[in-house]
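Methods — Computational structure assignment.
A single polypeptide chain was analysed. Its primary sequence is given first, followed by the predicted tertiary structure written as structure tokens.
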Amino acid sequence: MTDPREPQDPVTRHPRPDFPEQEQQHPGWTGPMDPPPDHGEDSYRGTGLLRDRVAVVTGGDSGIGRAVCLAYAREGADIVFTHLPEEEEEARETARLVEEAGRKVISTPADNRDEEQCRALIHRVVEEFGRIDILVNNAAYQMAQPDGIEAITTEQFDRVMKTNLYGMFWLTRAALPHIPRGGSVINTTSVQAYQPSPPLLDYAMTKAAIVNFTHGLAQMVAERGIRVNAVAPGPVWTPLIPATMPETAEFGKQSPLGRPAQPAEMAPAYVFLAAPGASYITGEVVNATGGTPLP
């Protein structure tokens, strides 16, 4: 096991393309991925930064969401995370990692496209814990369409918008009355917000909107002592990639570091933004793009 406290070359720390071509049905699964994603299972070490906080993470079954749940738990937080019903097996692994860290965990199926399910999630958390200290709006949907805008059906467009934007809005609106001073909302945007790839036109639109939502809401709730920030990942090796992208062999090769990020490399940004040390940081976007310059 590599000691995470030792300096490591970011170019060679994790696998580099070319990867085997691989394709999965949506929403994708961690197990078949080659190379396997790293969520920090063997590397993330907590220091109690989030001791006894209550964190809600949408899309926590795999990828960035699983890495955030793991890191938050090892920092001392209790976790509530959502997943789609078909992701139950993936969710069990995330729950196991949280419990292994000695924290409480609630894993619940929920679809961001349904307002009532969003309200019910927040109600359940408040009933169980009495408050929400950290809300991570991470769940998202994408489906690449290399054949142009004509290939984006209204059904796909509606799913992308509702999953990525409506759900974030509904959850945040419902959660805010239960977030005390010192709490945080952290949204997952993307490099796509600034440098949209044409096959991900509709997805990129939502990620740009999330940046704007973050800036606006941060100003709206600042006087309530609640901070709102976002993380903008570049290419990250998650099940969403083989499930939604037509080619995977060179995924992430375009980044200056020459490889995609592993989910474990995203989690520290979410920890930092939720921790007390970031008390003067709100309305900001942390870019985690492997060197791709963003505004």
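Note: Strands lie at 54-57, 78-83, 105-109, 134-137, 184-188, 227-233, 285-288.
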